[in-house]
Amino acid sequence: IKSSNDPDFNGVVSDGNGGFYVYTNWEDRPGSMSRIQVSGLTDSGYGNITQEGMIDFSGVGGTWVNCFGTVSPWNTPMSAEELYFDDTSDWFNPDYEYFSNPQSLATYLGYPTDGSGDWPNPYRYGYIVEIGNAADAAVANVTVNKLETMGRFSHENSVVMPDDRTVFLSDDGTGVVFFKFVADVAGDMSAGTLYAAQITQAAGVDDPAEAALGIEWIELASMGEADIEAAIASFDGTFADGNYITDEQVCDWAESKSGTDLSCDEDATVDANPFSDDRVAYLESRKAAVALGATGEFRKMEGVNINYNLASTWWNGGAADGDQAYMYMAMSSFDKTMSDDEGAIQLNGDNGKCGVVYRMKLMRNAAGEVDVMTMVPAIVGGPYYADRSVNECNVNNISNPDNLLIMDDGRVLIGEDTGNHENNVVWVFDDPAI
């Protein structure tokens, strides 16, 4: 029996009888999710906690490092697969330092771990996983669906906007991308358009507490779930097959998509799409985004969230400018690719190891969708003390912000996941700017 010490997200869904179900992500390889029921409300609180069991992910071939999440407006927990394989080729590389991870997945699937037979398809992992029928009294009746339409990368979190179409998605790692998905039909995530952010930093400002980041959304592709799943299936096979999308194919796709000869290859021609569809955008989303000009420089992008009640009030009131119509995003760190004096993001990284939380004002764009156009620093961690062996980030400020929750009064709960504070804490942040 496998046990886990790595819980992350807790999602709450009403049971319809005065109690609620708590869905908990577990960050393992393969990943998992459990459900408990909390009921029996009295004057002194809830009296009953029932441990119901685990969600069955076998129908989707298992999951991978179930990280943070949210609950959708239609009450489905949205669990994020945090896939730390920047290069899919490493999935088939026995010398890769984390090769034991796909081996663990092979064991789960009943495949040989020595590469002598079938091997897990890397393109079946790295998505947002939607948990349907979440309020059913029987945990066995819960359904599972991977939302491949939202792209494949190191998902930290997704959050659905009050238009029931727009979803913002964070990508954890180093040199990563901010994504957006817009569904064709409200409440139906099975088809839509995937976008990636191109960032422009405020000119002449490198202070992380002052430097606003402007956003322009680059359209990557539009495909439906069935077509993406068919593309994924084409990569099923053995370890010896080693079948994956190469960097050259990503570049060729991007040149075909943009109609431009790009710097990702050395020839002086616009190459043709090596595939009959836009699978590259959905299966190698980060590389595809960067090839088309999106900014792949974010560092340790973590939770992204709204208060749905506040955002809905704003949206249903005509989406006019108003208090509390904001989204927040945490960067656990802003060192390395965010402070290396290269590219679009060039922050002063003196306190980069302590992190930052950004605020984004919600707006209605020309297409009538919820959107964000600017990332404004709301709170920056630090100072950072390099000469210390403990509490390297000032204990009177945040360090490595991770999960975020916005309360009904607009205050932000910031959960730390840090080695730079001796004790990790949850901060209550009353944003002075709003």
TrEMBL record:
<dbReference type="InterPro" id="IPR008557">
    <property type="entry name" value="PhoX"/>
</dbReference>
<protein>
    <submittedName>
        <fullName>PhoX family protein</fullName>
    </submittedName>
</protein>
<dbReference type="Pfam" id="PF05787">
    <property type="entry name" value="PhoX"/>
</dbReference>
